[in-house]
Design goal:
- The complex is a heterodimer of chains A (111) and B (114).
- In chain A, 0% of the residues lie in helices and 59% in strands.
- With 111 residues, chain A is mostly beta strands.
- In chain A, the strands form 2 sheets. In chain A, strands 2, 4, 5, 9, 10 and 11 form a 6-stranded mixed beta sheet that branches. Chain A has a 5-stranded antiparallel beta sheet with strand order 1-3-8-7-6, with no helix packed on it.
- Chain A has no helices and 11 strands.
- In chain B, a hairpin with a 6-residue loop joins strand 4 and strand 5 (44-50).
- Chain B is mainly β.
- Classes of the chains: A mainly beta (111), B mainly beta (114).
- Chains A and B meet through strand 4, strand 5, strand 9 and strand 10 of A and strand 4, strand 5, strand 9 and strand 10 of B.
Chain lengths: 111, 114
């Protein structure tokens, strides 16, 4: 069953702007992950944040996690045309080592 | 260097004609997953293997079967594809068993059912 839900469903921004997307989930987790999917391709892992972490950075990516609100955000700074893709959050439930994906946010970066 | 390889990338079949999709990995990961992804939807887990142990999701139709003859290979068999089975099928692997770490995905196999 789908655990995470992303918001917004779609996002269109100008190159150089920041893009922020949010993920909410329902039950307690071990960790939360973000993936990127280019059109017609497989998913690529971006970042993993554990339930005892609040913020994590990787290059132009910043992820936050608020376990009290059961939510996470992904920020892409200084966006580029190559960032155009769908972004998915995925949660790993406690006592269950499967990953459940949300429906994703489609990001379009205009040149 | 592709680490999870799926074949074929594109598969066209007729209604009811069996299809087999393959996945191979060079990562020596214990866990292998098959996800189904329909257009603009979340990837949906069909089943996974932890080593040789097969784990079927409760809502995976009986029409879908899987085989894992060894660590490196995993197959998805669709016995009688229907129009609703047209989707992207994604294979993924994971090293950790106790809890899921990063998943490594293949490029997917897109199935069209005529």
């Amino acid at each position: 069953s789908q655990q995470g839900e992303e918001d917004p469903q779609a996002l269109s921004i100008q190159e150089g702007e920041n893009a922020t997307m949010n993920c909410s989930y329902k039950t307690s987790i071990n960790n939360l992950q973000w993936y990127r999917q280019n059109s017609g391709r497989g998913l690529v892992h971006l970042i993993l944040i554990r339930s005892n972490e609040r913020e994590k950075h990787s290059g132009r990516l910043r992820v936050t996690l608020d376990t009290s609100k059961k939510s996470s955000s992904l920020l892409i700074t200084a966006s580029r045309a190559a960032d155009t893709a769908s972004y998915f959050c995925a949660t790993d439930l406690i006592n269950d080592y499967k990953l459940s994906f949300g429906a994703g946010t489609t990001v379009t970066v205009r040149a | 260097d592709a680490m999870v390889i799926q074949n074929p990338r594109y598969q066209v079949t007729q209604f009811g004609k069996p299809v087999t999709l393959s996945c191979s990995q060079t990562l020596n990961h214990n866990v292998m997953y098959w996800y189904q992804q329909k257009s603009s939807q979340a990837p949906k887990l069909l089943f996974h293997y932890y080593d040789k142990d097969f784990n079927n999701e409760a809502d995976t139709p009986d029409n879908f079967q899987s085989r894992r003859p060894n660590t490196s290979f995993c197959f998805l068999d669709i016995r009688s594809p229907g129009l609703g089975d047209a989707a992207m099928y994604l294979c993924a692997t994971s090293r950790e068993g106790g809890y899921t770490g990063e998943l490594f995905f293949g490029e997917g196999s897109r199935l069209t059912v005529l």
